[in-house]
Amino acid sequence: MSNGPDGSSAGADHIPVSADDTAREGDGAGLTGRAAPLEVQDLVAGYGGVTALHGVTVTAGAGAITAVLGANGAGKTTLLRAVSGMIKPRRGRVLLDGTDVAGRGPEQIVRAGIAHVPEGHGVIAELTVEENLRIGMMSWPSRLARRRAPESQRADRAAALDEEFARFKPLADRRRKLASTLSGGERQMLVIARALLARPRVLLLDEPSLGLAPRVMAQVMDLVVRLSRERGLTIVLVEQNARSALSIADHGFVLNLGRVVASADAPTLAADVALRHHYLGF
Amino acid sequence: MWTLPRRLGVIIVLAAIVVFLSVKLNAFRDYQIAEIAVYVTAIAGLTVLTGLSGQISLGNGAFMAIGAYTTALLLLHLSWPFYAVLVVAAAITAVSGAVVGIAAARLRGPYLAGATLMLGVALPSIAYAWPGVFGGDQGLNVVFTTPSFLGANFPLTRWQAWVCAAVALVTLLLLGNLGHSRIGRNWRAVRDDDVAAALDGVNVAAARIRAFVVSATSAGLAGALLAILTGLVAPGAYTITLSIALLTGAVIGGLGSLAGALWGSLVIVLVPTYATDVATSHGLSSSVGANIPIVAYGVVLILVMLVFPQGIQGGLRRIMIAFFGPNQKSRTWRTAPANNVTPSADTLLISGDETLSPPEPPDKPTSQHEKEGTS
Amino acid sequence: MAEFLQLTLSGISFGMVYAAIALSLVLIWRGTRVLNYAQGGMAMFTTFIAIEVIYRTHNYWAGFVVALAAGLVLGAICELTVIRPTLSRPPLNAVIVTIGLLILLEGLAGILFGGQFRSFPAAFSITGLKVGGTALGVSRFDVFVVAAVLATTLVLAVVFKYTSAGLRMRATAFNATIAQLSGIRVARVLTVGWALAGLLGALAGVLVSPSTFLYPNSMDIIFVYGFTAAVIGGLDSPAGAVVGGLLLGLALSYVGGYVGGSVGSELTSLVAFGILIAVLMIRPDGLFAGARMRRV
């Protein structure tokens, strides 16, 4: 796997492959005692007069898939938005590898290492597939900051692009076509590939399966699993479809009306029938 | 809170104030009172159009011109009494408002702005094209005298102030009634979300056209008043500058608010005069002295908008809330769209034309069509 | 026939000026969703700066270059100081702020440069060109006007389509949220957009002022026509701006030329209004409205 833009191999690419290891690292500091990649502490956030999050604490374990579940209006999307900087938290902290990034703008937070794929297929329909992907690399340090020759930067970017195209064949086939011509599943692939190009430490996925046919939904979920297992990416997955989310997640948080009402590893949550009925709809 | 008896009460108090001031102050001030009343009449209609029904108009000066020229022509050729002339002027501008409203019914945002801007520029040029009828550059003279029952010594300016203020206050009352009625509710529904309003059974096009008719009529009345106030109806007074001044007054005062129409009119009439006074009293050279008030006016506009995003009325409301706490039973109509997000506190995004609001549950249609520029 | 040719070429020449203003408005609209009513005022101001430079250096091109540079700077300054706060406020606030800016610039120009009409030199000879013995009805300067605007438009189009900076601007214009989430410094992009718009306005100013004379209000009507051209073309479409400008320039030229006497010249704004309404009746979002997809 290629190195990140700063030449180091820290970050997304090399964590253990065995399912057991990743499961054990699933919730927080775990065995190594290091800070979890993402820790949200007592987050309060909202929109204008409405407070949507009333002090939410969520932890995403390294290399694990952490599901954030709950009914509509529970605050799941708001949580992701507050973490990625789309909205500014009113209180609380967002710790990325121990550093508080709460209150920074989205441009800075993505540079710090949190990539957010918002709900609703955020492709820019008027641009081509390749252009959409190039945008994903806009968070890379600038030419001047890196003091590397433009040639090698261009080569880096081209290599990164090629890598994503190799991973996502349908995108490669359509690289010069407008993103508006992609199907729902392909668009989801595109936005995820774009987010991956930012070389994030943490990936926030908001309802990736929304509006997709069941077969395509399964493919997307497979992709999410592969991202976690093969790349060791720390993933926070917000899903309306709690059943499928729990089937791939390592750990889960259940939100209700802006508060965390449950936090456990995925099998435990899936087994708790009362919880499922009450908050998750199945 | 703003029930009919209360509104009537405020109107009566304002009328008393006008009478008092008009007697106490000199002729120039009477003229200014009349001028303010003219703007209030026009701006009130515009603030209803833009603030309540969500349609921007950069051309209401054209409707004022129609009212003014109608008045001048009727007085010149038919010598009708003024109240009759007022009625006809109102009727004719109402019709023209309907025409414009129908033409503009499908236009939104900047396209509506562009169309009305061009209307405001183009209409006065009709006066130049047919100088025989409209008096061309020189315009038409208007003769207006005090009625005999007031006696020979009653100052004309005071009478003008009374007439203008009376029309303005009646306009405010009527518009207030409209705003609190079902018509007003329909307007706000159309402004906030015309798709939802249509689904609710509101005839969106009719509501929008109605709003144009109302605002045009107000402007027409204002034009008629301006005609008798200045004694002259010439195209130079009804340029695009006037239309822009009307919109400026509406937004500065507080869009959608009738009280805002008053504040806006005060700013438009008094700030330039005040600035000119200051400039001349300092004996500045003519090119500088003439331009200082212009610079000052521009700065005032910018500052008010930056400091009071909801206009003067919005600012006053904030001050009142700070002192007295939120008014739970306030029944002033909503001047802001229902799903308005007051962003800056929460959003760090510069989000183009997407408003960041609490996410909709997936089964409800999320309509993010382009909105008119309203607060 | 000769008259037709002359009117056509003159219409194209003016049309290009309207197109430049229209383009600057489209640029700002796509990037910030603001209609810059001060665009004409900014152009007037930079043209005044140019005339002062030309006056002192006796060098037209020095003034030309300074005007364009001043346009960049003025655009950026306006965005940073006065426009940025309005982006998170109700949209009509930006309208009033730009109107206030316009008034401010006109007053400032009156103070700094005086209110009298000044004549502004043309870049090239304004005498009519001849091919063989026949007068073409167009001058070298007219050709320069068309060429300058076209060249600038092409350069901008290339920058937008093929450079990384251009991609940043397009992404921000189409979806600022996604752009920001991807790390694009949207604030900077907006400033650059306004700077480029300022450049286009400055270009329009120096190109049209030889015909209109230069005084604080000289660009008002040019702005109105430029705005109309942008609306006709569709505010999200740069191609529409150019087409709208040409259409308007030609129409106004023909009306002014063929409908004789004073009625003809008075009717120009009515004709513009007529064209505008005709277009908007058929396509309420402008001729090239399809260029932008509405997200539902």
Molecular structure report:
The complex is a heterotrimer of chains A (282), B (375) and C (296). Chain A is of the alpha/beta class and 282 residues long. Chain A has a domain at 36-127 and 200-280: P-loop containing nucleotide triphosphate hydrolases (Rossmann fold), CATH 3.40.50. Chain A has helices at residues 19-24, 76-84, 106-112, 129-136, 143-146, 150-167, 169-173, 184-197, 214-231, 242-248, 266-271, 273-280, and strands at residues 38-47, 50-60, 65-70, 91-96, 99-100, 114-117, 202-206, 234-238, 251-256, 259-265. In chain A, strands 6-7-8-3-9-10 form a 6-stranded mixed β-sheet, with helices on both faces. In chain A, strand 9 (251-256) and strand 10 form a beta hairpin. Chain A is globular, with a radius of gyration of 18 Å. Chain B has 375 residues and is mainly alpha-helical. Chain B has a domain at 4-239. Chain B has helices spanning 4-24, 27-52, 60-77, 82-104, 109-122, 125-129, 131-134, 156-180, 182-192, 194-199, 204-230, 240-253, 258-281, 286-307, 311-324, and strands spanning 140-141, 232-233. In chain B, helix 1 packs antiparallel against helix 8 and helix 12 packs across helix 13. Chain B is globular, with a radius of gyration of 21 Å. In chain C, strand 1 and strand 2 (134-139) form a beta hairpin. Chain C is mainly alpha-helical. Chain C has one domain. Chain C contains 12 helices and 2 strands, in the order ααααββαααααααα. The longest helix of chain C has 31 residues, at 2-32. Chains B and C meet through helix 5, helix 6, helix 12 and helix 14 of B and helix 4, helix 7, helix 8, helix 9 and helix 11 of C.
Distance between the termini of chain A: 39 Å
CATH C-level class of the domain at 36-127 and 200-280 in chain A: Alpha Beta
Q: What is the alpha-carbon Rg of chain A in Å?
A: 18 Å
**CATH superfamily of the domain at 36-127 and 200-280 in chain A, please?**
P-loop containing nucleotide triphosphate hydrolases
Look at the structure and give the mean pLDDT of chain B: 83
Total of helices of chain B: 15
Q: Assign an overall shape of chain B.
A: globular
Q: Report the uncertain regions of chain B.
A: 338-345, 350-355, 360-375
The helicity of chain B comes to 55-70%
What profile does the largest beta sheet of chain B have? 2 strands, antiparallel
Order of helices and strands of chain A: HEEEHEEHEHHHHHEHEHEEHH
Shape label of chain A: globular
- Output mean pLDDT of chain A: 81
